[in-house]
UniProtKB/TrEMBL annotation:
Domain PhoD-like phosphatase metallophosphatase, first and last residues per copy: 121-461
Protein name, per record: Alkaline phosphatase D family protein
Domain of life (superkingdom): Bacteria
Any Pfam family: PhoD
Taxonomy of the source species: Bacteria, Bacillati, Actinomycetota, Actinomycetes, Kitasatosporales
Domain Phospholipase D N-terminal, chain residue ranges per copy: 11-108
InterPro entries found in the cross-reference section: Metallo-depent_PP-like, PhoD-like_MPP, PhoD-like_sf, PhoD_N, Phospholipid_Metab_Enz
């Protein structure tokens, strides 16, 4: 192998999908991160050594080995470690030639039968590079968390100018980024741009992540094989295949998630001792086309059509079967778009979004019926997409405020998408009046810290005032709890 003359670890390290005895370690070699090909050969493979230690000085290394970084996988490394101790913190690093990567910290899940006293998780989504700095991620890196849920829009597909949009970069970006992503090379380089951000690298290095996608990892508001612009299906499936391949390459995911062309099985389940079961959904790949041509419309026969689905039949059966089999205190569903009803105005014929579960209300009804049949009493739904903080009670009948509350939904704001935002957006009063099950609404950037214990779930809504300039402080704008066995959000 030709010696590496420049540091190849410019995109950081990551870990993810922790099991009681396993975790995935990730890195990507990129000595020239903003050049197509990243300054590495277009074929062959580079040997990368890895170490896992019980301490951050690597005096107590417990496992080590060598993995390939193939050119065919954009020189990414996925190490699926086995034989680890449950509920343990470990540190890891990589070496290629004479270069050593930053150190990452990860944690395995507890044993399935473990009585977990408390666990804390971050909830993230929507980090458009050119609409602001990742200040929130820098703060999240310093949180004491067991893991992070990222629920969509890790990258965006839009063109980015030399100044990085709202970042107004002093060092201009290459012109390569100033076009929309269509090809495999486009998507690979978009991840390289995003992952070059130091705050994103810090957040990955600090915690293991559970990831899922939404639409912008491919293209805005796509539905299965149908693009927003109704491109020819074969053409769009080729774009989806490129996007899915780049997604797998750049995420800490296992081999079973490796895509086959335009198909990637991303929905999956994890346990966290006896405390929680995590069901991570994919509401993009299998959904029916949006009703009424997408956008916002009053509900009608199309939105209520039981033949239409947001999850696909197989994923829906898997989710409901998982509810029936669950013995966990908390059933946590991590997914992309607003689950709870969200009316634009208080009118009876108010418009709702066709891209959320409101546009697929028969799907939502089947899930809620499955929750009741399974006797799930502690349902928590974690969501992103809306670029605002929302906290909802999940109602059996959203049109009847007095109907039973079946769970709660914590919808986290964006990391940067939407620019700075504001605490109270112009529709603040109207939105709260139109949705009595909505308990909180804040339009600033940030994330949510979700704490679970056997007695309650708590959501701390963190916000920052500005993302268009770096360095803003983090504040806890609001906190809510829901008691085990008595779902419904109350101020903490």
């Amino acid at each position: 192998m030709t010696p590496l003359s420049e540091n190849p670890f410019t995109l950081g390290v990551a870990s993810g999908d922790p099991l009681p005895d396993s975790v995935v370690l990730w890195t990507r070699l990129a000595p020239a991160p903003h050049e197509p090909g990243n300054g590495l050969p277009a074929d062959g493979s580079i040997a990368v050594q890895w170490e896992l230690s019980e301490d951050d000085t690597f005096r107590r290394v417990v496992q080590s080995g060598t993995a390939d970084a193939p050119a065919a996988d954009s020189h990414t490394v996925h190490v699926d470690l086995r034989g680890l101790e449950p509920g343990r913190v470990y540190w890891y690093r990589f070496r290629a030639d004479r270069w050593i990567s930053p150190v990452g910290r990860t944690r395995t899940a507890p044993r399935p039968d473990a009585a977990v006293a408390t666990a804390r998780f971050g909830l993230l989504s929507c980090q458009q590079f050119d609409e602001g700095y990742y200040t929130a991620l820098g703060h999240l890196a310093r949180e004491d968390l067991d893991a992070v849920f990222f629920v969509g829009d890790y990258i965006y597909e839009n063109a980015i100018n030399a100044q990085g949009g709202a970042r107004r970069l002093a060092d201009p970006l290459p012109s390569f980024y100033d076009h929309w992503t269509l090809t495999l090379e486009d998507y690979r380089q978009r991840y390289a741009l995003y992952k070059s951000d130091p705050d994103l690298q810090a957040a990955h290095a600090a915690h293991p992540w559970y990831v899922t996608w939404d639409d912008h990892e491919v293209a805005n508001n796509y539905a299965g094989d149908i693009s927003q612009d109704n491109d020819p299906v074969d053409q769009f499936r080729a774009r989806r295949a490129a996007a899915y391949r780049a997604y797998w390459e750049n995420m800490p995911l296992r081999r079973p998630q490796r895509p086959s062309g335009p198909d990637l099985n991303l929905y999956r389940r994890f346990s966290y001792g006896r405390l929680a079961q995590f069901d991570i959904l994919d509401t993009r790949q299998y959904r029916s086309d949006q009703a009424y041509g997408d956008g916002w419309h009053a509900p009608g026969p199309e939105t209520r059509d039981p033949a239409r689905t947001i999850t696909g039949d197989a994923q829906e059966r898997w989710l409901l079967d998982g509810f029936r089999a669950s013995t966990a205190t908390w059933n946590v569903v991590a997914q992309q778009v607003a689950f709870s009803q969200h009316k634009e105005t208080p009118d009876d014929d108010a418009r709702v979004s066709m891209d959320t579960w409101d546009g697929y209300s028969a799907s939502r009804d089947r899930v809620l019926a499955g929750v009741e049949r399974a006797g799930v009493r502690n349902l928590v739904i974690l969501t992103g997409d809306d670029h605002v903080h929302f906290a909802y009670d999940v109602k059996k009948d959203f049109d009847d405020p007095d109907s039973a509350t079946l769970g709660v939904e914590l919808l986290g704001t964006s990391v940067s998408s939407g620019f700075d935002g504001d605490e109270r957006l112009p529709d603040w009063e109207t939105t709260l009046a139109a949705n009595p099950h909505l308990k909180y609404y804040d339009g600033r950037r940030g994330y949510v810290v979700v704490t679970l214990d056997p007695q309650r779930v708590r959501g701390d809504f963190r916000t920052i005032a500005k993302v268009t300039t770096p360095g803003a402080p983090i504040t806890t704008a609001a906190s809510f709890v829901s008691e085990a066995g008595a779902p419904g959000l109350q101020g903490a």
